[in-house]
Amino acid sequence: MPIVSEYGGLSSLFFKAMAKDFMNSIKTYSAQIIEHIKDAILQGELGPGDKVNEAHLAARLSISRAPIREALQMLVQEGLIVSIPQRGKFITSLTAKEIQDSYFAGGVLEGAAVASTIDQFTENDFNKLQNIINQMKQLAENGENRDKLAPLDNSFHDILLSKTDNSLLVELSHRSCRGISKFLFFKHWRKQFTTKENFERHQVLLDVLRTKNPVAVENGIRKHYKEAGERMKQFGSDVLSMNKVA
To answer: Which residues contact 93 (CB under 8 A, 6 or more apart)?
Structure first.
């Protein structure tokens, strides 16, 4: 093999390795940018309908715009950001019906998943769920920060979905509710039910789960989500617009 070909081959491998490292660095930065944007949403710095400016993010984080574009595209796929041609990218805004629909979908998906696996739940699983509820109750009794409810609520529902081996079902369940409505409207979500109501609602749900009756379990989970959707729909973009006009 001619020497020039050997160098050409090495050069090709070298540039492929550089390109791979470059793409990995973009993905690493992208993950950090995603966390930054999500944190801004949770903190109320960004809200439904707000524009996400690539240039401002690049300047604020002192990075190039390539990983920012990558991060925003990933958030578009998650549904937290919408891309509007000729206008840019915006934090997703939902109407009252869309909020209700997302909770309904979440209830249907989680209800189906748990009902189909309820026979796999053990007393140890139920005790773990009861422990989470007890922590919710303690928050209510001590008047502690409502922000602590979110991770407890997530842990509760993660256990409910832990028995299913259908990863797509779990992903869609998270995306339809936790990833969109609950995340986008977190500052409202944490206030919709008192801490007392929160632990009572989950206690009712656990009591139904303990029956191991698939029909009762599915209906109980659907009702749990439907109640939340009814509370949260008041923060739909159409409702808020009407309130401003009024």
So the answer is: 48, 49, 82, 237
